[in-house]
Amino acid sequence: MIVQPLVGYYSDNCTWRFGRRRPFIASGALLVILAVSLIGFAADIGHAAGDSLGKTTKPRSVVVFAVGFWILDVANNMLQGPCRALLADLSSGNADKMRASNSLFSFFMAVGNVLGYAAGSFSGLHKVFPFSMTDACDVYCANLKSCFFISVALLLVVTTLALTFVKEREIKVPAGEKEKAAAAGGVPFFGEIFGALRDLPRPMWILLLVTALNWIAWFPFLLYDTDWMAKEVYGGVVGDRLYARGVHAGALGLLLNSVVLGFMSIGVELVARRFGGVKKLWGCVNFILAICLAMTVLVTKMAQHTRQHDAAGHVLPPTAGVKAGALLLFSALGIPLAVTFSIPFALASIFSSNAGAGQGLSLGVLNLSIVIPQMLVSFLSGPWDSLFGGGNLPAFVVGAISAAASGIFAMTLLPSPPRDVALSAAGGFH
């Protein structure tokens, strides 16, 4: 919630000769490497610090893992904000380029997802790195560690290439801005955040509203999709084999989702032209999202109606038709997800540029409309589901309603973006 606006503001006002975005991208990449190293070696570090191999609970390993996961969250935010802001900078005010660059950003996110799911499904990956298995790290831990080795190598290569060949213009911050910051006792970050929110132009407020509703719809499914597949579709109970099979089926669904996400990301610009603009496309795919989330109720009811048991009374996996229906929903959701990963960020860059705002801080403000819904869904979905007897469907239904509302507001209230705008080097909405 704080990291992206903070990094965005600092990168907007950075005057390093190396560039204003690239130092933060490099720092974020290094933090990612540190984070995955802590996560991958958590069991080994915990064992070296005193965790007993004979005990189920390993508190030191848990602490190392939690710290690594927290650093990873910070690092991801340090990377994504400046990367998207750099894309906007390089677009030089061309709205078409902003949309195209964010679509490509979404495409490469999909590529990363597909590679990650593919690597995770290969149970023999640890054999490539035989040293990954230790007394404290079993085959599953070693496979995860091996995935991290590969991801770190890829991250180092692509980051080095990007920082070497992508050039930035050196930004000169006006002397008056420097004096203002010095008089305030340093960089007035929180003052800029409040000022940015106070002075937001109307298009940005509408964009924040549509984005927030959009993510209220997305987060229940993104957080509980494999649990839904394992419990409601497969009829499993946490800890049993059927639940594990359901989780594996959900992982396959996420892989299919990522494949569709990748193809749709490439075609967002073309489809937007056919639909008559990005806001109409965003509105339409939000209705697709609403329909898919509502269809989870139908798939669940079909799974319950066709549930079969063996002679011993054990629940059998769902029928082929039910599994196909669930996987089809996962796949179809890749279409609205591609738009969600590209169009809102492109519109934020376009609207903020038109208002004379810094790209980093503007995208950081947009991130608030993503993080706040995530927090609300995380805290409230459990009690909300419990009111209706448990399960994931109540939160999915709320998501469907929110998606429909987001679609309506996108098509009726969100203004059409101008084609070309003049980019500003300054931060804040002034």
TrEMBL record:
It is found in: Membrane. It is a multi-pass membrane protein. Keywords: Membrane, Sugar transport, Symport, Transmembrane, Transmembrane helix, Transport. SUPFAM superfamilies: MFS general substrate transporter. The chain crosses the membrane at residues 24-42, 100-122, 142-166, 204-224, 251-272, 284-304, 324-348, 360-381, 393-414. GO terms for cellular component: plasma membrane; vacuole. This is Major facilitator superfamily (MFS) profile domain-containing protein. It comes from Cuscuta campestris. The lineage of its organism: Eukaryota, Viridiplantae, Streptophyta, Embryophyta, Tracheophyta.
